[in-house]
Design goal:
With about 700 residues, the chain is an alpha+beta fold. It folds into four domains: about 210 residues, Histidine kinase-like ATPase, C-terminal domain (Heat Shock Protein 90); about 190 residues, Ribosomal Protein S5, domain 2 (2-Layer Sandwich), CATH 3.30.230.10; about 180 residues, Rossmann fold; about 45 residues. The strands form four sheets. Strands 1, 2, 3, 4, 5, 6, 7, 8, 9 and 10 form a ten-stranded mixed β-sheet that branches. Strands 11-12-15-13-14 form a five-stranded mixed β-sheet, sandwiched between helices. Strands 17-16-18-19-24 form a five-stranded mixed β-sheet. Helix 4 runs antiparallel to helix 6, helix 9 packs parallel to helix 12 and helix 14 packs across helix 20. The protein is globular and about 105 Å long.
Length: about 700
Amino acid sequence: MAQKTNSQTAAYDAANLQVLEGLEAVRKRPGMYIGSTDSRGLMHCLWEILDNAVDEALGGFGDEITIILHPDGSIEVQDKARGVPIDKEPRTGLTGVEVVYTKLHAGGKFGGGSYSNSGGLHGVGASVVNALSSRMDVEVDRGGKTYAMSFQRGIAGTFDDQSAPDPASPFTKFTGAGELREIGKVKRGVTGTRVRYWVDSQIFIKGAHVVLDEIQRRARQTAFLVPGLTIVLLDRREERTPEQSERTVFHYAGGISEFVDYLAKDQKITDVIRLTGSGDYTETVPVLDKSGHMVSKDVSRTCEVDIALRWGADYDTTVRSFVNIVATPKGGTHVTGFEQALVKVVRKAVDAQSRRVKFNAKKEKIEKDDTLAGLTAVVTVRIDEPQFEGQTKEVLGTPAARQIVAKVVERELGAFLASTKKGEKEQAALVVDKVVSEMRARVAARMHKEVSRRKNALESSTMPTKLADCRHTGIDRSELFIVEGDSALGTAKSARDSEFQALLPIRGKILNVQKASITDMLKNAECANIIQVIGAGSGRTFDIEQARYGKIVMMTDADVDGAHIRTLLLTLFHRYMRPLIEQGRIYAAVPPLHRVEIIHGGSKKNEYVYTYSEKELHQLLKKLERSKKRYKEPIQRYKGLGEMDADQLADTTMDPSQRLLRRVTIQDAESADRVFELLMGSEVAPRKQFIVEGAEELDVERIDA
């Protein structure tokens, strides 16, 4: 019998219990406080310091914040607010600076009246960052002097720097309460705080780095949320590329109305609608009494609501929510209240205009998704001491916020949708039209989705009659050719490999879906057939995993009309089946323009060479002249696919071993949106200007390249 090891027989008693004091717990379990120890956690440290500065700006102290990325990897946040308190805190005997940056759950945000509302609420942000930094330097301007204190991994002390500040410099920790150093003087009335820190490589994983785009996004977002605040980003790192600006300034006077305009990329249906209001509620909270004990007390609170929204022509939804300028990406009670009230108000507006839009309340019902389609909204609330679900503050938990936000939305948005004012009345009608259209499109799309999955032999009749399907059912090989016209279909049927190549003919030019509504698109026979055959739904119901074919090939004539048809098809794919383009599953066939028959003397067979442009043809003919080879005249010129026989079409366009396909890709979705709106949208003037400006410098070879 094997003997038990010491670890197996060791007693488990009180001596085995470990108590982590103060910042020790933060260094032992950093994920509890900053989420992770990768780049995301590293960025969270910056947000904690930045939020402290923003909270001051929210309170009306300081209108400028500077973020500096130093060449040595350190990050500095400067503000011109009141400055961290420098006097002694009576209970601990430590200076305000040391309390704020070394003590967990310490700060001026626990009901002391220093902050009416703030983003930092748990009192752990600054101290957590200090604990996870190999060095932190804090400078405070107050009372005409500049005071400083340094920390190493959360412990106050002094660094013996030889030149520039360095975390590796010799460090001497304070034996008792730390003393602030006077390092300079400032003009009377000048106040502010500067925090510079070096993140600890012992804590953060290798490869964790500052994400510049994230800082810019956060700075821009904050500047939108706090009108009048200026945020300056200085990037002094050596790895900064020449294209990147060293200094970036974010300042927006319009607040969240400008934020909505920035977020919305589609064509607008309404102007930006601003919904504001407030509500009172009572909350039972523990507060410190004079003797330092926690006692429960009923406190009267005010919740201020400020919402900006607008509807656009697209079907995507963008809703950003904030509590005291802190982003709540996973929503919370304020977003729930907003969405519930939105559905209620819109349903009421649709009922009021039911005769105009032919809405049947017994058979039709407006759902939440219908009201959110094409909506861009920024939902902000300001609350004293909000309840968040966790230190990362991603979800608001304050119950009263839901009802207060809902009341404000019902009152303000209800007044807008029922308005009789010129301009507002027309916009309200457009919103009702859009919502009803989305509802009908949703129902139609669901029906399409149900019938468009690959069927067995008994159910195949649900597919369009003109579809010549393939036998292979997997997406690894299957290809769908969308063919222009029935004449080309006949040739393509003989040229294809029916094992894995399917054919769907379309009659000429399909509907321009950039201009048409979703309902009109689904009513259009050609568009509906394409959606049905691909089998993955459309718009917000599109599921690429359900797509029936691995490749979708647009096979049109090599002329202007063919190029127009390809553009119309691409518009359909871009608006309603975008993942197909993003995953590179849309192709354009490249049919030849000419066939040159090269004459070989003797018993050798004549050779056929295909060319795809006039330039390529001239180059071939010159080459034949130089080599003194003859070719048959006249040269075969193809006006369309229908002029080819099956063998020619197979060799040039359909046979995977010989054909040439162009893959359609999308690098920048926003840029693509602008291009489609310019070329295929309802606005004629910008399109005319684009054509006129580009006419002089247009290279023929670039057309359809």
